[in-house]
């Protein structure tokens, strides 16, 4: 049996055995396993320096910090715990690539749709902007809000606003 030695992160030598097994795989016998177990139990102090790799992070599927897909934000209960306006999704988000669903006119007065509209108005004013579509905040519905105030029109050159026949209007939903 042939044995090779390699340095570990703590500069200990690990024997690497070549086994004449039928699968011809390398078998690595780790001498650090007992030390790693003791470290988890708190017996060994953590290494002082020389770490090449950061410690491995463990992820849990039950963690509330896992980001949900954009289109789930509007369909599942609470969007954000902070209570502020929803964030505008980034370019490339899947909700921006899928067709938005129509909203039944009978549902426009429902509490759910009105909450979505209120969130859209808050996000539009926070951005700031003159309009916002529901998919831009992660909700795949055909809803838009528009508001072009004198303040916003004042930023554009006079010739441009005259050529566009741009006039201020209040909030449209």
Descriptive notes:
The protein is an alpha+beta fold. The protein folds into 2 domains: 2-41, no CATH class; 70-172, Peptide deformylase (Peptide Deformylase), CATH 3.90.45. The chain has 4 helices and 6 strands. It has helices at 33-41, 111-126, 150-155, 158-164; strands spanning 2-7, 13-18, 26-28, 131-133, 144-148, 169-172. It has a 3-stranded antiparallel beta sheet, with no helix packed on it. A 3-stranded antiparallel beta sheet has the order 4-5-6. Strand 1 and strand 2 form a beta hairpin. It starts with a strand and ends with a strand. Mean pLDDT is 68; it is low at 1-14, 21-33 and 59-69. One of its GO terms (molecular function) is metal ion binding. It is found in: Plastid, Chloroplast. Pfam families: Pep_deformylase.
Which features does this protein show?
173 residues; alpha+beta; Peptide Deformylase; 22% helix; disordered N terminus; peptide deformylase activity; Peptide_deformylase_sf; protein biosynthesis; Peptide_deformylase
